[in-house]
Amino acid sequence: MTTAPSQRIVRSWALYDWANSAFATVVLAGFFPILFQDFWNQGASSAVASLRLGWANGLASLLLIIIAPLIGAMADRAGIHKRALLSFALIGAGATASLAFVPENAWAPAATLFVLGTVCFMAANLFYDALLISVAPPSLWHRVSGYGFALGYLGGGLLYLGCVLAVLNPPWFGLASELNAALAAFVVTGLWWVIFSLPLAWDVPERAPLAGDGAVMTGGLRQLRGTLTHLRAYRPVWIFLIAYWLYIDGLGTTIRMAVSYGRSLGFEQNDLIVALLITQFVGFPAAIAMGRLGEWAGARTGILVGLAGYVGICIWGALITSPWEFYVIAGLIGLVQGGVQALSRSFYAGLIPPERAGEFFGFYNLLGKFAALIGPPLFGLFGVWFGDVRYSMLALILLFVAGALLLMRVDTQGGHDERA
Fold it and tell me: Transmembrane region positions (predicted)?
């Protein structure tokens, strides 16, 4: 970040996190689950609506698992990381905005658009992560990665706050009802996603194509097959990916199960909305600070600090009795969540061959989608086994500790992060 052009490139790259985090907060975590049950599944039981939503989420993850490594390898081969990102972002934003026009009780079209938007959101992230390698020198990857996550927390939190205010006070925004405001949130999110992707489209350079015979599909398949065949050459990568899978499963479970856990303790829905907003806005400066910590002490140290923080959060979470404690825990999650995510991305970037960033970030995102296979069931089982939902929080400690132990075994010799 020493020259004006590099600053502009980094800023434009990071603004995509601001752009696409709107989908994560407004659609994935906020409005779609509520409208899917209350508007698009009217007349169906909550169990049926939840099952349909579960299938939709599962299908989206399965589709990404199938295509992620291949499309990443193909982008490496053709040098089209930015174009692929923008193509998926445009389709995803269109699918998101189209949700506003799905009529009442039309759960199947709503689920279809949701799956399309989610797949495009996750696929575009693959290419966004891969571009980190080319927008900044290795010495700045931790800082730049943290900067991106920080803007994502701030942008997603601001838009979510605006949408919540619109639902609570529709006349302020010229809307007729709470339902109109909630549906309009999908259009606003789609537009937000597209508009704030434009700086990346204008300023971030495309990665060079991988040398080869020019056949994108067959070359990508050969590249992917070669990587799978020579796994031993990338042993540190796979050790890290297993560690990442474990601790990111625990991190994801705290996000997915927070509302359910809070409701089971008797907290009101407004308490949970406030907690989500606290996490978003605390995450903004915290992700930047954790990026600097990664520069100073190494990415691995920063991640381990964050995981230790999660262990403490789980212990306190099992003991809380008041909404104010829920708010404080939300703030603590904001302190460490973005930092763990940001430093994981930059740590991984230092382990992989740069010319195959798309393919390897395909595996990275694939493992991220496999997360939540262990955590949520383990979370529920601990509550059943011990007869109290509070014990569920303690189950996640196993995932954070196991991930941390494996992370300490990753050999970074020859990697970019000598302080990892």
Answer: 12-35, 55-72, 84-101, 107-128, 149-169, 181-202, 233-252, 272-290, 302-320, 326-348, 360-385, 391-410
